[in-house]
Amino acid sequence: MVAEANSSPEVLAPTHEIRYEAVIGLEVHCQLLTQSKIFAADANAFGADPNTNISVITLGHPGTLPKLNRKAVDYAVRMGLACGSEITRHNVFARKNYFYPDLPKGYQLSQDKGPICVGGGIQVKVKHPETGETYQTTIQLHHIHLEEDAGKSIHDGDEWATQLDYNRAGTPLIEMVTEPCIRTAEEAGQYLTEVRRLVRYLDICDGNMEEGSLRCDVNVSIRPIGATNLGTKVEVKNLNSIRNVMRAVDSEFKRQVDVIQSGGSIIQETRTFDAATGLSYGMREKETMNDYRYFPDPDLTPVVISDEWLADIQAQMPMLPAERYLKFTTYYNLPDYDAAFLTDARELADYYESVCTHTSNYKAASNWIMGPVKGHLNEKTLRERQFPVSAERLAALIALIDDGTVSQTAAQQVFTLMVSQPNVTPADLAKDNGLIQNRNTDALQSLVEEVLAAWPDKVAQYQKGKKNLLGMFVGEVMKKSKGSADPKLVNELVTKTLQKI
User: Fold this and answer.
1) Contacts 24+ apart (CB under 8 A), 122-125
2) Percent of the chain having pLDDT more than 90?
3) How far apart are CA 89 and CA 453, in angstroms?
4) Is residue 15 over pLDDT 70?
5) What is the mean pLDDT of the chain?
6) What local confidence, expressed as pLDDT, does residue 162 receive?
7) I want to staple 280 with a disulfide (CB 3.0 to 4.6 A). Which of 10, 19, 224, 271 is the partner?
8) Strands, E, within 20-168: which ranges?
9) CA–CA dist 21, 17 (Å, integer)
10) pLDDT of residue 130
11) 397-422: pLDDT as tens digits
12) What region holds the Asn/Gln amidotransferase domain (predicted)?
């Protein structure tokens, strides 16, 4: 469903002197992580064998009746609250009538006149294409509505026929429709990035565009810079990556400018984007709202969201990325880069805060998570919360560094051992593997004297003012200690000994 631009688009004169701007709106479809479908008990699971997660309700057999999944309503409201939308208390589902092979009932159950969430917006940070400066803008939402997904048409399994998989039919969706307020491909990409981050924070959608659980349609029109009327809108369907959304915006903008400047006119149509060529191709002229013959579904009673229901959803809302970013930069006093990195995914932010319940060295915790911990994670294990070491054990390792038990270098070796030996404490791993830092002053003093005696010419150069040789002396002592010496103590001992020579 699309927020209509206007009924009488401005006619653009063909001229090479006019500069144009893009007017962009996005429709983002998010499959909800409910266990069952929105109106049936069929499993809502990706990757099952074709046509196994179906029932007579999904297939629209005569006499079957749908029943709304309450959890889908909860998830839609969560997203609306995260975006600052107004929540519609009295909700009605309508039949959106059209024929397509992957729509087994001949209609789609959706929301027409009364979407569950109205208004709101999402803040994004964008780099200006010309100056490179970062600015913040709010992408305004027209609405968010609930609906069911269609099945999937498969065109490459048979040379002469289209195959149909109805497993996806009936999967609960929210469709997020922006106002036509986006002006650049960069803004579109950042908005979609933020939507994906939000749905993952809220745990309502996994955001996998490659699996189709997050899909995006782009509406693009152009107008002369300074004009206020909207041009004729073209919809580019089913883009499967953020990069392709941005490419499709730029490609469609250029195509429309070329059409106008060559004396043509823009046709309101639906197009498909070819990622291989970077070009879009016409599919069909765009339907109008009347073509769908919306009417309230007679089999579904209205859904009333009570004060108690809404309060219960609000109570379960997690801290959102913007709030967490503020907390990380103020309470934990992290730099902007660290805070942005750690709040990018809810799992990372949760893990960081768990570590910080066991240590007060907040910056060290950030450094370890952004470095070694993140190095052991990939996207899949991160979302499954499979961190290589527990928060408590990582904090214990940081404590060993802070009290001088192990050096920073040795701690890297301890961390590797912690990953493979999850039931052994960091202190025991350091002890058992000879990684405890040597702070025996007498023993280290002997090593210092051995090194200085072995390099008399370098000592003479140091005495003549070549102070950068201090690092070399410390390094040689560290080698003799096989890395076990406390580098701070070695530095002190070498400096004092050189002063006495």
Assistant:
1) 122/83, 122/191, 122/194, 122/195, 122/198, 123/194, 123/322, 124/187, 124/190, 124/191, 124/193, 124/194, 125/190
2) 73
3) 84
4) no
5) 91
6) 87
7) 271
8) 20-31, 86-87, 90-91, 94-97, 107-110, 117-118, 121-127, 134-148, 152-154, 163-165
9) 13
10) 75
11) 999 999 888 888 889 999 999 999 99
12) 350-498
Task: Provide the residue range defining the domain that includes 395.
Answer: 321-432
Q: What is the pTM of this model?
A: 0.85
Same domain, 331 and 480: no
> What is the rounded CA–CA span in Å between residue 115 and residue 140?
15
- For residue 4, tell me if it sits in a domain: no
**243 in a domain, yes or no?**
yes
Same domain? 217 vs 113: yes
| DSSP string computed for 103-116 | -TTSEEEE-SSS-S
What does the alpha-carbon distance between residue 328 and residue 353 come to, in Å, rounded to a whole number? Answer: 9
pLDDT for position 261: 92
Mean pLDDT score, 422-438: 91
Round to whole Å and give the CA distance between 19 and 253. Answer: 12
Burial 300-319 (b: 16+ CB within 10 A, else e): beebebeeebeeebeeeeee
Residue 379 in tokens: 């996207």
d(Cα 97, Cα 237) in Å, to the nearest integer?
19
Confidence of residue 288 (pLDDT cuts 50, 70, 90): low
